[in-house]
Amino acid sequence: MAVPMDSHRGDETRRVHFMTKIAIVYFSQYRGHTEVLAESIRKGAESVGDVTVVTVSVDNVEDHWNDLHQADAIVFGTPTYVGSIAAKFKEFIEKLAGEVWLKRVWTGKLAGGFTCSAGQSGDKLNCLQQLVVFAAQMGMIWVSLPVLGGKYSSKGGDEDINRLGGYIGVMAQANIDEGAETAPPQSDRATAEIYGAHIATTARELREGRKVLQSGAQVTFDGRPKNLAETFGG
């Protein structure tokens, strides 16, 4: 018997509904280096079965709040500017300080982070630590980078995975005079792909485990959250 076309669409809708959802929210401006990492993490996450991924620039977050609310994992990305997160990304974080924080909307979601600077260090660790704190404020569960740091011996080099030896999240370096076509280098992009796949796999395992245990119900929230001033007045 022929199956009506609407039936196929219904099956697809149900399949997407039960897929693990990953959101990557980031700010990228100077030469687009951080956006390169966002796309690399997306590529890695999409390599995992039954996973759907959305990338959201903080410039467009007002159109994507539900993508964030419905995600099983949210990966935060920002360049490291003067040893800290970019002001534009902090502006996004402060939008969470009202209802998302107060009502624990993102509690139990997985979180991860990535950053890029021109310097080999650039105090990127400080930037990632700030992202960990932001995630903790929202009650999220942080996922670290699982691969061993590279370039640990005289046989190592810039082609190594995790060449900068970070573990909290992805640390990348992009030469200040190179565009996104070549910077950050392929090793940093590959590291970001591994991280994306790891987060997606972990999120899928957590989602499936919660279904079996019938636990981990999250707060249902829809649309743009009120910020601190809108929530409390003043």
Quick overview:
With 234 residues, the protein is an alpha/beta fold.
Structure report:
The chain is 39% helix and 17% strand. It is an alpha/beta fold and 234 residues long. The protein has one domain: Flavodoxin domain (Rossmann fold, 3-Layer(aba) Sandwich), CATH 3.40.50. Strands 1, 2, 3, 4, 5, 6 and 7 form a seven-stranded mixed β-sheet that branches. β1, α2 (33-46) and β2 (51-57) form a beta-alpha-beta unit. α2 packs across α7 (186-213). It is globular, with a radius of gyration of 19 Å.
Q: What is the domain tally?
A: 1
Order of helices and strands: HEHEHEEHHEHEEHH
What do we call the CATH topology?
Answer: Rossmann fold
Structural class determined from secondary elements: alpha/beta
Shape: globular
Distance between the termini: 64 Å
**CATH homologous superfamily?**
Flavodoxin domain
Second-tier CATH architecture = 3-Layer(aba) Sandwich
Helical fraction equals: 25-40%
Question: Tally the helices: what do you get?
Answer: 8
Mean pLDDT: 91
Set down the secondary structure blueprint.
Layout: H1 5-17, E1 20-26, H2 33-46, E2 51-57, H3 65-69, E3 73-81, E4 84-85, H4 87-94, H5 99-102, E5 110-117, H6 124-137, E6 141-142, E7 170-173, H7 186-213, H8 228-232
Parallel strand pairs: 1-2, 1-3, 3-5, 5-6, 5-7
Antiparallel strand pairs: 3-4
Helix pairs in contact: 2-7
Based on the model shown, name its key terms:
234 residues; seven-stranded mixed β-sheet; globular
